[in-house]
């Protein structure tokens, strides 16, 4: 009489392991395009936010800055990194020299809502994206001139100091991704504040573009 051979425990473990690897590969294949789509959307939203911030700084005669904050609670119970523009209050209403108001130079309006007259919508930054290059970008009141002084002061008391404003020009703001997506740049014109977004091509067609993407 012939006996039927069953599956050994080792064979079952190997089968489960192979199935798990195939499932993980399939999920990664699905997730990668989703992640890159989120990165693309966040990059474009940040670019649009810079244009909106510039327009508001000119029209309201108040400084408008971009802030990036970590661990911000969301409505779904999670905490995420988010960015938004903040229109800052000034110490007086007859000129824009005292902007932002005292006590609002190095705090965000999420921490101190009284520092802002208006804020933009939150832009959720994907976990695979580093957007802190744009943190502190500020458009000066009235002129819309862009500065990034390395903090959140918006160059208070330096409104007419052209050399200081030149030194704080933001240049190219670089976003990096851990997903393997090429770096993106938001290129901010140092005098007008007009911005363009560029996705870096690893086979850049010009030497200048290649340098901007690598450095």
From TrEMBL:
Q: What Pfam families does the annotation carry?
A: N_methyl
Concerning InterPro entries, the annotation shows: N_methyl_site (IPR012902), Pilin-like (IPR045584)
Task: List, alphabetically, the PROSITE patterns matched.
Answer: PROKAR_NTER_METHYL
Q: Which domain of life is it from?
A: Bacteria
The record, for NCBIfam families, names: IV_pilin_GFxxxE
Instruction: Return the protein name.
Output: Type 4 pilus biogenesis operon protein
List the source organism: Myxococcus xanthus (strain DK1622)
